[in-house]
Specification:
The complex is a heterodimer of chains A (210) and B (205).
Chain A (H helix, E strand, L loop, with lengths): L6 E5 L6 H9 L5 E5 L4 H4 L10 E3 L5 E3 L1 H11 L7 H26 L4 H30 L13 H16 L4 H4 L4 H9 L1 H9 L6
Parallel strand pairs in A: 1-2
Antiparallel strand pairs in A: 1-3, 3-4
Chain B lengths: L3 E6 L6 H10 L4 E5 L1 H7 L10 E4 L2 E4 L1 H11 L7 H26 L3 H30 L13 H16 L8 H12 L1 H9 L6
Parallel strand pairs in B: 1-2
Antiparallel strand pairs in B: 1-3, 3-4
The chains are: A alpha+beta (210), B alpha+beta (205).
């Protein structure tokens, strides 16, 4: 890798594309960050392997669909997936734990149309689901971390970037979350903001609705 | 002494792909199965209070796909290089998307609503995802029967296991997808897997 021929196709949103962009930014890896609006999607859709995005296109034209498969691949290529198979697995476990909570939030709260049901689910999410999740991440960090800032081993991994991005997105969607998180993620967030390459990316990335 | 211990319920669910990987690899492990009431007694002692969990030496790993990928890599069933591994992950995630559509159907208590959700699953979600899986098999499969690179990977085992459940509900659901049907037949023919399938506990999910 290291080729500028790496292409990422996604909407001009953070959503399911941003983790990939963060990993590539942390590694200072050049790539073509192809972003389109919803009204351009009909142009791109037939060119995507499963008619969905994000898609990562490699130099030889191979297309990889599925945001997490892409993220894991670029993390592996850029040294952000742990130093061995076991560390990679611990990272995957943290990622999947965060992913479960994201799916619950977006599935049951964020995209819920019925106002009454939405309010009920939000209440449950804030007071039960999120509390348990923060506890679980704490347990995983205790079991896997050798460093006060990062989830696994001794250095930044894509698990840290995923939790960071997810928390940021959650805070933007429901600011009430802030009170529920306590100081749990402060060291992680500080570490990421102090990372030169990430700071440069975060300061310059396009501002989008989500 | 076994260095691998797998903790899960006494059914296939989210534990079976790990058991299939162990079987394909011919790897000995402790297959710890809990009935529901036993689980309630052990839940507090298990990391995150959920299963499956893998104990590897002293390390505990939760999350079924994280465990499966780890085991697959240990036993060369994850893909021969980074790109193949990414393709395998993409197939698994596509199957997982479909699993996540089925879960609300199983969870629905109201009979009428469940029937509605089930119809929607079989008439809309299933064909859409089968179409996608068919594409991935053709594009990643190098013309062979396996999903990626012409050899068995855990993507094939993941597909095999989930579709055992679906075929149990609707035995004709793969009739329009001969390549996918053949993929499952190819998995069943692997000698170590055939032996495991014959001897394992039979469960509907």
């Amino acid at each position: 890798m290291g080729s500028c021929d790496l292409k990422l196709y996604y909407f001009n949103l953070q959503a399911r594309g941003e983790l990939i962009r963060l990993i590539l930014a942390a590694a200072d890896r050049t790539y073509e960050d192809i972003r389109f609006d919803i009204n351009q999607w009909s142009e791109y859709k037939p060119k995507m392997i499963l008619g969905q995005c994000p898609v990562l296109e490699l130099t030889d034209g191979t297309q990889i669909p599925q945001s997490m498969a892409i993220a894991r691949y670029v993390a592996r290529e850029t040294g952000l997936a742990g130093i061995n198979n076991l560390e990679a697995a611990k990272i995957d476990a943290v990622v999947d734990t965060q992913r479960d909570i994201n799916e619950t939030f977006y599935g049951k709260v964020f995209f819920e149309q019925d106002e009454i049901r939405k309010a009920e689910e939000l209440e449950k999410f804030l007071n039960e689901t999120l509390v348990k999740h923060v506890e679980n991440l704490g347990k995983l960090k205790k079991a896997y971390s050798q460093n006060e800032s990062y989830f696994v081993g001794n250095k930044l991994s894509w698990a840290d970037l995923f939790v960071f991005q997810s928390i940021k997105a959650l805070l933007k969607a429901i600011p009430q979350v802030k009170g529920k998180l306590g100081d749990q993620f402060k060291q992680l967030i500080d570490a990421i903001h102090s990372n030169e390459k990430l700071k440069a990316y975060l300061d310059s990335r396009p501002k989008t609705d989500f | 002494m076994s260095i691998y211990k797998l903790y899960y319920f006494n059914n296939r669910g989210r534990g079976e792909v790990c058991r299939l990987i162990f079987a394909a690899a011919g790897q000995i492990y402790e297959d710890i199965r809990y009935e529901d009431d036993q689980w309630l007694l052990h839940k507090d002692k298990i990391l995150l209070g959920q299963m499956p969990v893998l104990e590897y030496n002293d390390i505990k790993l939760p999350q079924s796909r994280a465990i499966a990928r780890f085991l697959a890599k240990q036993f060369q069933l994850a893909g021969k290089n980074d790109i193949e591994q990414a393709k395998v992950d993409a197939v698994v995630d596509t199957i997982e998307d479909l699993i996540e559509k089925l879960i609300p159907v199983f969870d629905e208590q109201n009979d009428v609503k469940r029937e509605e959700l089930s119809k929607k699953f079989f008439n809309e979600e299933l064909p859409k995802h089968l179409q996608n899986l068919d594409v991935l098999l053709k594009v990643f499969g190098n013309g062979g029967s396996f999903f990626v690179g012409n050899h068995l990977t855990w993507a094939d085992l993941y597909f095999y296991n989930f579709f055992e459940t679906i075929l149990g509900i609707n035995e004709n659901c793969l009739n329009n997808y001969p390549s996918l049907k053949q993929n499952r037949q190819e998995v069943e023919k692997q000698p170590k897997i055939a032996e495991y399938l014959q001897n394992r506990p039979k469960t509907s999910i």
